[in-house]
Write a structure and sequence with these properties.
- The complex is a heterodimer of chains A (372) and B (354).
- Chain A is of the alpha/beta class and 372 residues long.
- Chain A is built from 16 helices and 11 strands.
- In chain A, strand 3, helix 6 and strand 4 form a beta-alpha-beta unit.
- The longest helix of chain A has 18 residues.
- The mean pLDDT of chain A is 94.
- With 354 residues, chain B is an alpha/beta fold.
- Chain B has a 4-stranded parallel sheet. Chain B has a 3-stranded parallel sheet with strand order 9-1-10, covered by helices on one side. In chain B, strands 2-3-4 form a 3-stranded parallel sheet, covered by helices on one side.
- In chain B, helix 10 links the parallel strand 6 and strand 7.
- The longest helix of chain B is centred in the middle third of the chain and has 18 residues.
- The chains are: A alpha/beta (372), B alpha/beta (354).
- Chains A and B meet through helix 1, helix 4, helix 12, helix 14 and helix 16 of A and helix 1, helix 3, helix 11, helix 12 and helix 14 of B.
């Protein structure tokens, strides 16, 4: 089992041999293990362990998707403190796209081989239930083959409320209208302490999990995120992941976990320093190690920047997300990444890290393996 | 095979050029980082990461070298060419000192019309402010020698007596003449570059060494570059630090993709492992951004470079990152190390309580 002597010795020195044994045997790690992994200063050993799991699950494959982002409205009643995107209705900068405008966005790019349209918006106090149903139907009408990944669990709960329906009813009708899967946003950190302080109006963590599990039971896959780098503790991060792991044991409907680095600019938490590269990488690695029942970990380059996202591929991540045109949420918070990386740029980052680029669809079916 | 090389490094034995190539190609990414960290802590046992407060002052952008990788220079006939006035120079130095700066990094293009007297006057002027002057990379020294008809040694002696304190390691690019012919045909060749450094070391000047990689060179060329530096360091011990920089192709005459962060960290680690007689290896936040620079601290780097109160050359290639001293200290702390301000020779500056 002598994988690498120098790494093993270092792991021993750091007092992480028991975790190493568990990882090699494929045993589940505990909450305490997770905290110890966050606390280690031995980044290369942590990366080595996370990479073991990454390669066991996904080999050298590194996924990306050709997608289109639509943020249909920034009008939002939640006004979470970490958000630079949401605006009160009627305030300067607030906007809401009509169904026609959304359709026009889709029609503009019909000639591109886009696999997925990714739709997220604010919690709008007045848009009727029919708006969401019509949006899905209209997109499907003009582009029937496209997969629609839309509406975070927070939006789903709100849409159901606007329609006077149960979560299950709403999900079934949205699915019928064209919803293909659910993005992972709105999870933030599940801890009630954090939600009370940063987003008291938002769907509570246990409800978020309930919506996700309900979707899974109805055959809709989803993703899960964690917003880190604001006021949360290491323990709260680990507890967040443990809650996701437990839910996944029940339904197995999560495809991917996406740690999201908090961007403080233009938010109510501007005094918080941006995340460090080390913290970004640790969140990728620890989540890969703790979430043993999640098939994929995503390095969302829009938030991490292409350089850190590329490094993340050696620390547990196997997905780079997509080409992402017109992303608004991170960029409103001072995200300095460009609006889009071309497929070729993404492929170059992946091959330069010694991995194999794989274009995927939303559900991680292989569209093509890019060979060089 | 690769296991044997790793063992050699662990035992503190020197590896040869072929072994360095094999290590780069075959060792795991994390193993490379771990090996580099091992060497880093052997050379510098404390979890301290140093930085310097200084300012890059470019006294002229006029340059007859016309290197293909450079986005900064102007040809002599260009209307955008400038030579910095002493008045402006003095203002910049005062600002630097006000910000706690301890040195000036003074570099410029190879100007065809300035005499050695000009540079001597400039040095005397700078030294009247009582600040360390880290100035004139080897291609500049070679250029001064050619224009004045003096030997490199003679030029260095005159500059030293005018106040030059140390020499920056710029202009090394890749110290392999086949590569230099393609990217910098009119610049000092590798023997000339090394000769300036050897002569300077013998005259008591400390210098740094750099490498600009990720353009037309091969991995073998890079290792040969390191090998030449290691050889000279064995002779003189005059290098304080090594600084590898990934080439930034924006606005230059070389059309290639920049080295990625992954390649950068690998090259940094190999440098730390191979250059067993260099105490300090610098991370380049200027080209990589602070996050990758933090990661570099786990791949062999023990220095965060300079606050760069002013930087013009990389910025001309379309890459601009800015950090204050406080930010540099925070980034070092966040990565788990203790920040310490240093001087050019890597001795620690008087610590302010931060």
């Amino acid at each position: 089992m002598a994988e690498s002597l120098i790494i093993e010795e270092s792991i021993k020195r750091e007092g992480l041999s028991d975790i190493y044994e568990k990882v090699m045997k494929g045993e589940r790690l505990s909450k305490d293990d997770g905290i110890r992994l966050y606390e280690t200063s031995d980044l290369c050993s942590l990366g080595f362990l996370a990479n073991k799991v990454r390669e066991k699950k996904n080999g050298q494959y590194t996924y990306y998707i050709y997608n289109q982002h639509i943020n249909y409205s920034n009008v939002c009643t939640n006004l979470c403190k970490f958000c630079a995107f949401g605006k009160e209705k009627g305030k300067p900068g607030a906007y809401c796209m009509t169904i026609e405008e959304i359709v026009a966005k889709i029609e503009e790019r019909l000639d591109e081989p886009i696999r997925e349209v990714h739709i997220v918006g604010g919690i709008h106090p007045e848009l009727p239930y029919s708006y969401y149903i019509d949006m899905l139907k209209e997109i499907k009408r003009v582009r029937p083959d496209i997969h629609i990944q839309a509406f975070t669990c927070v939006e789903i709960a709100h849409i159901a409320k606007m329609g006077g329906k149960s979560i299950e009813e709403a999900l079934l009708e949205l699915k019928e209208a064209g919803l293909g899967s659910i993005p992972g946003g709105g999870a933030e950190v599940f801890s009630p302490r954090i939600r009370q302080r940063l987003c008291p109006e938002k769907l509570p963590g246990d409800h978020w999990l309930e919506v996700a599990k309900t979707a899974h039971r109805l055959g809709l896959k989803s993703n899960a995120t964690m917003l880190y780098g604001h006021i949360e503790t290491i323990e709260e991060r680990v507890e967040h992941m443990m809650a996701l792991r437990e839910a996944q044991d029940e339904t197995n409907g999560f495809m991917c976990f996406i740690p999201l680095a908090f961007h403080p600019k233009n938010t109510a938490l501007e005094d918080v320093a941006p995340t460090s590269g080390v913290d970004d990488i640790k969140n990728i690695a620890v989540s890969r190690l703790l979430l043993d029942n999640f098939p994929h970990i995503k390095a969302y380059w829009v938030m991490l920047g292409p350089k850190v996202a590329q490094l993340a591929l050696s620390f547990g991540a196997d997905d780079m997300d997509g080409t992402v045109l017109e992303e608004k949420i991170t960029h409103m918070a001072g995200g300095e990444t460009s609006q889009a990386l071309s497929n070729r740029e993404i492929e170059y980052l992946i091959t330069s890290a010694g991995r194999v680029p794989v274009e995927r669809d939303t559900l991680y079916n292989v569209v093509k393996v890019v060979s060089h | 095979m690769v296991e044997q090389i790793i063992e050699k490094v662990c035992l503190g034995q020197r590896i040869d050029e072929q072994e360095a190539v094999d290590l780069y190609r075959r060792a795991g990414f994390h193993e490379l980082g771990q090996l580099a960290s091992l060497k880093r802590f052997k050379e510098n046992p404390e979890p301290v990461v140093t930085y310097v407060i200084d300012r890059n002052i470019n006294y002229t952008n006029v340059c007859i070298s016309g290197c293909k990788f450079c986005a900064y220079y102007c040809a002599p006939e260009s209307e955008e060419g400038f030579v910095l006035s002493f008045e402006e120079l003095g203002r910049k130095i005062k600002e630097t000192k006000a910000l706690g700066g301890t040195q000036i990094l003074l570099q410029g293009g190879l100007h065809p019309g300035l005499s050695l007297d000009f540079y001597e006057d400039m040095l005397r002027f700078i030294k009247s402010f009582d600040i360390h002057c880290h100035g004139f990379s080897p291609p500049e020294i070679v250029h001064f020698a050619k224009l004045s008809g003096l030997s490199v040694k003679e030029v260095l002696k005159r500059l030293i007596s005018a106040g030059l304190d140390s020499i920056p390691g710029g202009g090394a690019e890749i110290l392999v003449d086949n590569v230099r012919k393609q990217i910098a045909p009119r610049k000092a060749n590798s023997a000339e570059w090394l000769n300036v450094m050897e002569t300077a070391h013998k005259l008591g000047l400390r210098t740094t060494a750099t490498m600009m990689f990720g353009h037309l060179e091969s991995l073998e060329d890079r290792i040969q570059h390191l090998s030449k530096l290691r050889h000279l360091q064995d002779k003189t011990g005059g290098f304080t630090a090594f600084i590898p920089w990934p080439f930034q192709p924006g606005n230059t005459a070389i059309n290639c993709r920049p080295a990625t962060a992954h390649e950068y960290l690998k090259m940094l680690a190999i440098s730390r492992i191979f250059l067993d007689n260099f105490q300090n290896i610098q991370a380049s936040w200027v080209t990589q951004g602070y996050k990758v620079a933090q990661m570099a601290l786990f791949f062999g780097a023990n220095d965060f470079g300079s606050t760069m109160i002013e930087e013009n050359v990389v910025a001309a290639a379309g890459v601009s990152h800015r950090l204050s001293e406080e930010e540099i200290r925070r980034h070092i702390r966040e990565a788990g190390f203790h920040p310490r301000q240093r001087l050019m020779d890597y001795s620690l500056a008087m610590q302010t309580s931060v």
